[in-house]
Model the fold of this input.
Amino acid sequence: MFVLCMTCNTRMGIVSRYSDLLFKAGGNILEINQYNETDSGLFFMRIAFVLTDESKQETLTSELTELATRLEARWTLHDQTQPQRVLLMVSKFDHCLIDLLYRWRIGELKMQPVAIVSNHPRESLGAVDLYGIPFHHLRVTPTTKPQQEARLLDLIQSTGTQLTVLARYMQVLSDEMSTHLQGQCINIHHSFLPGFKGARPYLQAWKRGVKLIGATAHYVTPDLDEGPIIEQDVERINHADTEETLIRKGRDVERRVLARAVRYHLQGRVILNGARTVVFPD
Ligand SMILES: Nc1nc2c(c(=O)[nH]1)N[C@@H](CN(C=O)c1ccc(C(=O)N[C@@H](CCC(=O)O)C(=O)O)cc1)CN2
Done:
């Protein structure tokens, strides 16, 4: 199966042009989603299709390129039989990492984990099964971040990483690194953004006395906790909760929000729209 994502200035006939092109190329559309953003005049579309004759893929790609040029469209085409190479990053809290690895092991997340990176030694993860995925301890201090990030960048390039997931990685990536990874790095923030940014959102939530806590998965940008949001969810809490019970209740929300965001990204269901996203959920 292939997934085509495109965005361009809206006009009549975009859907029919693509569906006609795919039909003539022997493509069978399995799922199609589109959205017209009236304010901006932008059009967004995702088409999942199979090719009845795989040998036509090259011709199809050149025809799609021509059409995108005529439409001045931004587009991507992913062969879903080629799982994306994913680098997972973690600090002390491993619940999101373990959850992603479990969903990968049972086939829910179609990805190819290529490395697990932590700023803490392997022992900090205890007896967690990493299924033979190479583990890299990249220690960092405020003064060694450039060197550490140079090693991280080497690893991302040498493993052919296509998606980096910050699964409770608690170090701020530099402007250079987050810009280099634009649209290819997803972070799980343990609050319902824009509320309670920073490193201790559950303490902030407890002090504020909120009745709902949440989690937010977003693409990483140089602006801390400001990246385009992919997915969010909440959990009801009450006056009797402490920071500890919020951290416990928060773990479940973080796990499901990050897993959904990673799945949507891997399935080509997220299209960047400036500082926001268009998401076609499954
Ligand atoms: N460029 C970005 N890098 C990271 C982002 C981001 O949005 N843009 N998100 C963080 C994750 N995060 C919240 O979700 C977060 C992590 C860490 C901190 C923080 O203040 N860290 C301190 C050090 C904390 C420590 O050593 O324990 C720091 O880096 O000085 C705030 C928010 C991941 N990276």
Summary: The chain has seven helices and 13 strands. The chain has two domains: 2-79, 84-279.
